Amino acid sequence: MKTNQPKRKIPMRKCLVSQEMFPKKELVRIVKTKEQELFIDPTGRQNGRGAYIALEPKFAIQAKQKKVLDKAFEMKVPEAFYDELYAYVEHQKARKELL
Fold it and tell me: In the predicted model, what is the mean pLDDT of the chain?
């Protein structure tokens, strides 16, 4: 016998680059801590100010070109961080395509 459970709500977040809403699982979260540290948060649960970018390599490239994270976090984000973000996004997209 099947019970009529309500459908689970899918959490949505806005991509900083495209300004589109995506399911949270299709985004990567970037966190800035009070100590001004910046890092990629694969768990989505770290403390700090979070911003999201879609798991699409073109958005990671645009983020670097437009300095999107610099504006969102009001700080100078190193070029190396944008490169790390691109590598992470590309890796995650490749993993998703394998499944």
Answer: 94
